[in-house]
Amino acid sequence: MSISDLNNKVRQCRRCRLSLTRNNAVCGEGNLNARFMLIAQAPGEKEDEEGRMFVGPSGKVLDELLSEGGLTRHEIYMTNLIKCTLPKYRRPKQDEIEACSYYLIKEIELINPKILVPLGYYATKYIFQRYNLLVLPRSDFRSVYGKLFLIDDKKILPLPHPTALLYSPDFKQDMVRKYRKLRVLSKDCEWFPVCPMRRFYQEGKLDKKWIELYCKGDWESCVRYQMEERGEYHPDWMLPDGSLARELVR
Ligand code: SF4
Questions:
Q1: pLDDT at position 71
Q2: Scanning 92, 131, 135, 156, which has its CA 20 to 30 A from the CA of 147?
């Protein structure tokens, strides 16, 4: 199935009750070869009217946050967990998520992005469940925003939903800091070519997860990187999280 076949199905979808109250089912859009796939919750009022992703005030906020992350919407693919608007912005019901996530799963297969970026609680909860990552109470979800997770051939970077800024402008600084992780994840660590972690990995002594999570992932959070930048001594056998693994040099 091609993405345009899938989008035609979305436009005509009657899999759940939300088809009765929508104006337009909103298909995913953006770069089909994107490294990042942003997954929002559901279309808002304006998106439902126009049948497009992130238009109106939420679109402005998204563009601003993306630019903090060094990206434009032409470089990413964006979609929703639920393709039809939720009446009066109510919470999505479990059966609606089950019915509609069929399309998201297909989109992930077709676009095959390296990094999934679920936005906000429902999208993050769904992706965590889908990939058997973490089961968290709702109150703990804030703690995972801006952190990188690894599953098989994909990375997951949950971020707060951009519309949160429309209601709570005080979060802006924190939100900007988290969206800047997109910039970090757009390139490898500058120390990687000469880092002992690369050598240990090539020698088969180091698990790939260290390379994917730090050197080719969130290198900004790597303790080795931070010490390197400060010009501080750190032994070759220090792992990116700061723990010591002397067996690497035996
Ligand atoms: S271990 Fe840290 S410093 Fe070394 S390449 Fe990876 S991220 Fe950079």
A1: 97
A2: 92
Give the span between the Cα atoms of 56 and 75, in whole angstroms. Answer: 20
pLDDT tens readout for residues 188-214: 999 999 999 999 999 999 999 999 999
Amino acid letter, 35: R
**Is residue 228 lining ligand 1, measured as CB closer than 6 Å?**
yes
Q: Which domains does the chain have, with CATH numbers?
A: 3-184 (3.40.470.10), 192-249 (no CATH)
6-17 as b/e, with b when 16 or more CB fall inside 10 Å?
A: bbebbeebebbe
C-alpha 43/C-alpha 51 separation (Å) is: 9
- Residue 160 Cα to ligand 1 midpoint, Å, equals 26
Identify which of 224, 228, 233 to mutate to test ligand 1's pocket (most ligand atoms within 8 A of the CB).
224
| Residue 116 φ/ψ, nearest 5 degrees | -95, 130
On the CB side of 71, CA atoms within 13 Å amount to: 27
Q: What is the pLDDT of residues 33-56, one digit of tens each?
A: 999 999 999 999 999 999 999 998
